[in-house]
Amino acid sequence: MVSKRAAKLVAIGVIVAGTLVAESRKEYHFAVGPRAGVSVMNPYGSISVKPSLNNTVVVNAVLHSDKVEVDNNQNGNRVDIQSHLLAGADSDSGRVDYEVLVPADASISLHSSTGSMRAEKLHGDVSLEGPGAAVDVRDISDAHVHVKTMNGAVNLDNIQNGHVEVDSLSGEVTLRGVNGPLVQVVSTSGKINYIGDFGNGGEYRLTSHSGDIDATIPEWTSADVTARSVRGEVHDDIPLQPKNHTWFPIDKGRAFAGTMGRVAVSSTVVLRTFSGKIHLRKRSEKQ
Amino acid sequence: MNCVELQQSLAEVEDGSSVEQRVHLRTCPACSALLNELNLIVGAASQLRGADEPSPRVWTAIEFALRQEGLIHAQPARRPLVSSFSARWGVARWLVPAAAMLLLALGIYVRHESLPNQLAEHASETVPVANPSDLDDADLMQEVADNAPAMKTQYEENLRQVNESIRDAQGVVDESPNDEDARRSLMDAYQQKSMLFEMAMDRSLP
Lengths: 287, 206
Description:
The structure holds two protein chains of two kinds. By secondary structure, chain A is mainly β. Chain A contains one helix and 25 strands. In chain A, the strands form two sheets. Chain A has a 13-stranded mixed β-sheet with strand order 5-6-2-8-10-12-14-16-18-24-20-23-22, with no helix packed on it. In chain A, strands 1-4-7-3-9-11-13-15-17-19-25-21 form a twelve-stranded mixed β-sheet. Chain A starts with a helix and ends in a 5-residue tail after the last strand. By secondary structure, chain B is mainly α. Chain B folds into two domains: 1-121, no CATH class; 125-206, no CATH class. Helix content of chain B is 69%, strand content 0%. Chain B has nine helices and no strands. Chain B has helices at residues 3-9, 19-27, 29-51, 56-68, 81-86, 95-121, 137-147, 152-175, 180-201. In chain B, helix 7 runs antiparallel to helix 8 (152-175) and helix 8 packs antiparallel against helix 9. The longest helix of chain B has 27 residues, at 95-121. Chain B is elongated and about 65 Å long. The interface between A and B is large, with 53 and 45 residues.
């Protein structure tokens, strides 16, 4: 009995030791100028990007085995980082987790197939793409934010004055405090949640083929809202001034269109789904 | 003033009307032709803007691409690219690459815009249920099987859903060919399928 237990402990110890031996850390530093470009391509593993304190790009990489290397290249004001899979690498042994610090005005482009991608506190353009990647972007201002995923969940939080475009096939997309001249989400089957006030004078298009669309807004929002579900239902908790003309017939229960708040600063809001439900909710004081 | 100096000066004096510019233009057919072409592009662009405004997505994609390439930078006071494009010669130095990208984007847009009409015209033709677009789903799945077998099921499911969305959107367009909203839905559905292909073919990913 004792020997079995001892054998188990030894086996676990060997596995842990093996993992620790195989795992390695690398750190790279690059001096860049204003508005640098930083690209990270990582087939397996996470990427997290935060602002640095000066004009330096710092890349911390945790490599999970010796079957993957980090290729790095600086060309002028552009830094490219890529995980280079060696023969026999799989999703475990090929995994690299990155923590990257960039100047806040840098433009970043991140690719990951399965890991999570996170960017925060930047005011340069942000582009994140990956089939199964979960995406979290927060505290971005005055920038383009482009996200493309297949089934990864997308969370955007506090994006101010952004040109935001999210394309997701089946992942759930949540926007909280996101505004700007253009905010667009297109999904095939994923649910879309919007919590915010639709800003001033922007264009907001939330579209999902079969996913539900939930927009929660304060009563004082100024917006010109059109909502339509071809085969599903629409619900509106906020009274709107009806519009006279629309592209399509207003079929009660399946569509509504109207304005709320001050016309001079109102945003254009289009909520559209084929078979999902649309719900325009009034935000409670607690939210 | 030589040709290089003239082209540089167009960023400052937009219409070639300064004394130095006029002197050079009188003696240089190449620069005169360039100026005419630039005028033509600006004129055509302003007409396009009035006649057939592309989706804001097209403009934002162009701006994003130019910024990613480092050709333009964010301005403190933001204005839509449409306005800056129509501002005559202030952007002269960007007209050639911008025009090339614009034509490319417009081509894609017009193709997408005409697609619903084509579909409506050919509504009576049989459309294969399993493959409602010209894109070959079998190739996509083969690509996924070769490069990312672990994600095959996810791709299959998403492909099924996006094909369904194309069929549904197409059905609405067939019922109401003048429904702008429905046409846009169809375009979105095709773009989603295009994105799925892009992801599967992306060599940088497993």
